[in-house]
Amino acid sequence: MSPTIWQFSKRAITLKSSAIREILKVTERPDVISFAGGLPSPSSFPVKKIKQAVDDIFNSEDALHALQYGPTEGYQPLRTWIIDTINHREKLQLTVDNVLIVTGSQQALDLLGKALIDHGTKILVETPTYLGGLQTFTQYDPQYIAIDSDRYGLNPDLLTDEDARTASFLYTIPNFQNPTGRRLSLARRQKLAEKAIKNALLLVEDDPYGELDYQGQRLPSLISYAPNNTVYLGSFSKILAPGMRLGYIIGPTALISKLVQLKQAADLHTPSFTQYIAYEVIKDGYLLEHIPNIRKLYQHRCQFMLQQLEKYMPKTVHWNKPEGGMFIWVELPEHINTTELLTLAVNHQVAFVPGESFFANNPKRNYLRLAFVTVSEEQIEQGIKTLASLIK
Amino acid sequence: MSPTIWQFSKRAITLKSSAIREILKVTERPDVISFAGGLPSPSSFPVKKIKQAVDDIFNSEDALHALQYGPTEGYQPLRTWIIDTINHREKLQLTVDNVLIVTGSQQALDLLGKALIDHGTKILVETPTYLGGLQTFTQYDPQYIAIDSDRYGLNPDLLTDEDARTASFLYTIPNFQNPTGRRLSLARRQKLAEKAIKNALLLVEDDPYGELDYQGQRLPSLISYAPNNTVYLGSFSKILAPGMRLGYIIGPTALISKLVQLKQAADLHTPSFTQYIAYEVIKDGYLLEHIPNIRKLYQHRCQFMLQQLEKYMPKTVHWNKPEGGMFIWVELPEHINTTELLTLAVNHQVAFVPGESFFANNPKRNYLRLAFVTVSEEQIEQGIKTLASLIK
């Protein structure tokens, strides 16, 4: 076909395939031990409970509604459940009008980018950060300001009042961040919220991993400190099943109304069917018994990987000890380029995500992300041993 | 909350809530006879078959895959089924790489807008046309060129070579169009395809209603005449269930690859769960027995509404006799503004969609769209009688 038949828009030309995506293709080979994917463990999926939920829906009058077009905002009982849960947990008094259901929280990022970014709009991101967020925002051509982070998460002292006043929003993942697995400390949450309020800065708080705290000791969310300044993004992908693609946005009603319009243009609404099922699964408090099992499973795998890192890695290699979530962030000696290491590692049947794609500006090349939840203990030991020997 | 905390992008400011959306809110009142919605009839939903499909998935090893993240392109067996079906029907030799599964075909329109429209890009639309298409494209700020249509659909003679050469694409719904219910004639399909090939024009062929031909005598699609120049959009919403939000895009691989990247940024992928279910439902030819039932049901309702229009409407009112689909397009005397009529009609418990929102430029105000598939015969008679008396 002649390429002259169409011409891509500027935004389409800038968009490149994500590194994660290309890597995942390689790691679909069954002989590769993959620490690359951000996939939750399938053994955490509540298959029986979901099957029961579907049966209950099909045995009720809900079936026809679950198969019909629905409101763009989402299924009302599910929205009510979400806002009740968040109000209770974060001590807030929000209403159902503060909630929009989205087709996975990736869609939340896209809708926020559409709603808030023009060419050259300044946005603040902690660094490193979720590459799917960067990829989505980049479509709308912002100017990134990167805020450095350390083991306590992003450092609010590095955020100037000037940037806070002039940026469209600050994007952050406070809990068990992707890619670092770090949790933003309590003191920093308070400080960041204060700075946001003082400078009328909008915080975009992305929280897919918040429930995966191994000790079940959740810190208050940014939205609890700065409810008028925060858009909170939640997800069922890591606590129920990602194949249902269910997430939600909580925010000020004037912002939610606009996001509803953008969502209507994007896909009319999130599938009714999956929303009905999710609600049926969770409405009677099922997550209270289910989530502790996921935490236990992930904590166990995390501990095991940390032990193997201790056992095999040379002294020049450093990593964090996550208190939750799915990722460990590993720092190698500065002369090692992890993107080059990946090619070598894949030849030895091991995969990870090189750190450079997680930086908005000035990528550091000596970091890598390890995911531990979809691999067995045998695979973890074998994979870490191989990686260590390659690094040495 | 202070509005100074965020500033909407230009595209967000331009976007307005759709008329259909506002109207649907009114028509949720159970006392209103609504000819407004574009909803398929719930009595056409294959509830038992879908329940069986879910059971089969949960009784197999597919369950965990159906609940896990999946590839952005979509579930491979579903893509294969789609391309086999289209190849057979349209006598083409496309491959699975020509197919991308989307979260309802509204998403296809959004992805195409993102991929192909910059500020001021010229795009061609038949007029009137689907307002959800206009709403989505408008986000990306194109310049619309409207091509007039008559009872045989859009008139290719009104498309100049100059416009065909310089436009990014032409958007058309050849079968039982929304809002007019018209079908593009065979001769015009050929002529349009020739013009597209001659001028290297991309055709966006949106075909959600193609299977709803009352006589089961489908005309060849534009993609069969101009396979290199056509992006074909299909949907399961009108032949299976819209609450599953499943559609697909068929096009040249270089275009599909870019749309895949944009889709990844938009929502990672369409829910795996609904894709597995749809495939399980249709894989053994179930649609061949199911679709004729929908056709019969819709034909019957259509005939009945046409009879009531004959019986009650004054001679100054005109309408088409659809050969398929869900809509009748009604022309009133020029002095009647149907948006004003709607307010009056809703006060009398009847709703429809006023025609003006379906025009890209220079809206005509004396048309209205009637949907007949979700209303009973009693409601049709009562509603048309009321409308006729208001028009008189």
Write the CATH architecture name of the largest domain in chain A.
3-Layer(aba) Sandwich
**Spatial ordering of strands, largest sheet of chain A:** 2-9-8-7-6-3-4-5
Number of domains of chain A: 2
Identify low-pLDDT runs of chain A: none
Helix share bin of chain A: 40-55%
| Oligomer state of the chains in this structure | homodimer
- The rough form of chain A would be described as globular
What is the distance, rounded to the nearest whole angstrom, between the alpha carbons of the first and last residues of chain A?
49 Å
Mean of all residue-level pLDDT scores of chain A: 94
CATH topology of the largest domain in chain A: Aspartate Aminotransferase, domain 2
H/E order of the elements of chain A?
Answer: HHEHHHEHEHEEHEHEHEEHHHEEHEEEH
Summarize the biggest pleated sheet of chain A.
8 strands, mixed
Helix- and strand-based class of chain A? alpha/beta
Number of E-type strands of chain A: 14
Looking at CATH, the homologous superfamily of the largest domain in chain A is: Type I PLP-dependent aspartate aminotransferase-like (Major domain)
Mind telling me the C-alpha Rg of chain A?
21 Å
CATH class of the largest domain in chain A: Alpha Beta
Largest Cβ-defined interface: A-B, 85 and 85 residues
Helix count of chain A equals 15
GO molecular function, one term (chains A, B): transaminase activity
InterPro entries (chains A, B): Aminotransferase_I/II_large, Class-I_PLP-dep_aminotransf, PyrdxlP-dep_Trfase, PyrdxlP-dep_Trfase_major, PyrdxlP-dep_Trfase_small
Domain Aminotransferase class I/classII large (chains A, B): 44-386
Cofactor (chains A, B): pyridoxal 5'-phosphate
